[in-house]
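Task card 7
Instruction: Convert sequence to structure tokens.
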Amino acid sequence: MAEALGKEPEVVTSAVAAADAAGPNFTSQCAAIRRVVPWSRIEELIGLQHEKPSGFGLLRRLLRTSN
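Output:
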């Protein structure tokens, strides 16, 4: 998502490296990526920074309205 939303290539590369270093567990890989690019940054990149960050709440609402 970060890459598609225009996050700097260096940051995306760091997130991928962190996921690789986290081992084969998908949950650990996702946590490693979120440490580099937190959900609050994803919300900013999609233009939701004016709303109070609430983890998955804003993303869930966005996905619900787009379907």
